[in-house]
Amino acid sequence: QVQLQESGPGLVKPSQTLSLTCTVSGGSVTMVNDYWTWIRQPPGKGLEWMGAIGYGGFTFYSPPLRSRTSISRDTSKNHFTLQLSSVTPEDTAVYYCARGRLREVLKTTFYDNWGQGTQVTVSS
């Protein structure tokens, strides 16, 4: 039912800001127990959780990326965005948006819906 789709430029120059949008259909970015999440996978590496935005617009960021990352949402358009500043070639990755859902008792999160992912290459 819920579908997510990433969009944005596939090529970003070093030192610039990477900007991606995730469009959500079949669900709402305002749901209380949903955390709209950005995850990336660099070549040859595992998945890296970047951050999320949840109920009321609260944001959560991976500490190594916190200073460069901004996640926001547009409730009227039902999408959320990622901005990663001062990019380097090490930021080259497939970027995914996903819906995280909290298991309140276990204090864990599962991701039940993912976008297809979009390749972003940082290169001059």
What are the SSEs and their pairings?
Layout: E1 3-7, E2 11-12, E3 18-25, E4 34-41, E5 48-53, E6 59-61, E7 69-74, E8 79-84, E9 93-103, E10 108-114, E11 118-122
Parallel strand pairs: 2-11
Antiparallel strand pairs: 1-3, 3-8, 4-5, 4-9, 5-6, 7-8, 9-10, 9-11
Task: Write a structural description.
There is one protein chain. The chain is mostly beta strands and 124 residues long. Helices cover 0% and strands 54% of the residues. It contains no helices and 11 strands. The protein has strands at residues 3-7, 11-12, 18-25, 34-41, 48-53, 59-61, 69-74, 79-84, 93-103, 108-114, 118-122. Strands 2, 4, 5, 6, 9, 10 and 11 form a 7-stranded mixed β-sheet that branches. Strands 1-3-8-7 form a 4-stranded antiparallel β-sheet, with no helix packed on it. The mean pLDDT is 95.
Summarize the structure.
The chain has no helices and eleven strands. It has strands at 3-7, 11-12, 18-25, 34-41, 48-53, 59-61, 69-74, 79-84, 93-103, 108-114, 118-122.
Sheet with most strands? 7 strands, mixed
The arrangement of helices and strands along the chain is EEEEEEEEEEE
Structural class of the helices, strands and pairings?
A: mainly beta
Count of helices?
A: 0
- Terminal Cα separation, in Å? 39 Å
Average predicted confidence as pLDDT: 95
The 3D shape can be described as: globular
The residue fraction in helices comes out at under 10%
**Rounded to an integer, what's the Rg over CA atoms?**
14 Å
Number of strands: 11
| Spans of at least 5 consecutive residues with low confidence | none
Strand fraction band? over 45%
